[in-house]
Fold this sequence. Notes:
single chain, about 180 residues, 8 helices
Amino acid sequence: MTHGMRTDVPISPGGGRDWRDNAARHALLPLRIFLGVTFIYAGLDKLTDSAFMKDAGAGSIGDMMRTVRDSSAVPALVDLALKNPPGFGYAIGLGELAVGIGTLLGLLTRLAALGGALISLSLWLTVSWASDPYYYGNDLAYLMAWLPLVLAGAPLLSLDAVLRTRRRRRTGGYR
């Protein structure tokens, strides 16, 4: 079974693949780049913002969590974060950074995308749950954006593809 490759693709007279097939093969690349760069930026932004990593004060994660606690879908998750707001802030920031790097490099892409989806889900259920109408909450859109990468991974232009090719050569073409 081949992943990500159509076998019924018409070959152009010059012997190459049709441009639409080539575009389809690379369709997830812009999504991967966008999500990878965005999550790296978000992680670095949190990790370098001294005001964010505090229990209280303007712009702190502690104040943000206390603000959204009563309007979140899962107040118990916010209560858990409030036990150690800076620790939770570092966990989210480092998680976003790891997810972004893995996604951008295409290393353990499905796992990175699952991590991104879980971060987006937790933020949607807590921070942006009260958005009205619901589509104003960007965390839901990020959650949906991660799902194609969870399903497909990074079959092209990725370290996963390089490792997969090496593994196939070593095993004589078998997976």
